[in-house]
Amino acid sequence: MDFCNELEKFKNKYDKNMLSLSTCTDAPKSLPSTKEFDVSLIIITPISLIVLISFALFILYKKYSKIKRKKNIYKHIEHQTNQLLHEKMCNIDSYSIKYQMNYH
């Protein structure tokens, strides 16, 4: 690992020197990197994103399901109140009407 780090340091120095020097036209302007992709980083990043997104969606689901449940309760209470008021109005009308029936 130390060898790779030293090669990377040499590459950085070479790249800096080649930017300032323009006399060598045949030499490459930069060297390829010796570092490989870190496999653990490639694996951990998508997994952590999936976990975070799932957690956020779960929290949002819980929050909005409670709000939706409260709205349904209010609608149900409003419906019951309207139904009770309608029944009271019907009862009031039936008590106030005088029936006139002819007897033979």
Explain this structure to me?
There is one protein chain. With 104 residues, the chain is mainly α. The protein has two domains: 1-36; 37-98. Helix content is 74%, strand content 0%. It is built from two helices and no strands. It has helices at 2-20, 39-96. The termini are far apart. The mean pLDDT is 74.
At a glance:
The chain has helices at 2-20, 39-96.
Q: Descriptors for this entry?
A:
single chain, 104 residues, mainly alpha, 2 domains, 74% helix, 0% strand
Topology:
Elements lengths: L1 H19 L18 H58 L8
Strand content: under 5%
The overall average pLDDT, rounded, is 74
Largest sheet properties: none
Structural class: mainly alpha
Assign a percent range to the helix content: over 70%
- Rough outline: rod-shaped
Low-confidence stretches: none
Q: Count every helix, treating DSSP H or I runs of 4 or more residues as helices.
A: 2
Count of distinct strands: 0
Q: Return the string of H and E elements.
A: HH
**Number of discrete domains:** 2
Gyration radius, in Å: 40 Å
Report, as a whole number of angstroms, the end-to-end distance. 119 Å
Keywords: Membrane, Transmembrane, Transmembrane helix
Protein name: (malaria parasite P. vivax) hypothetical protein
Transmembrane segments: 39-61
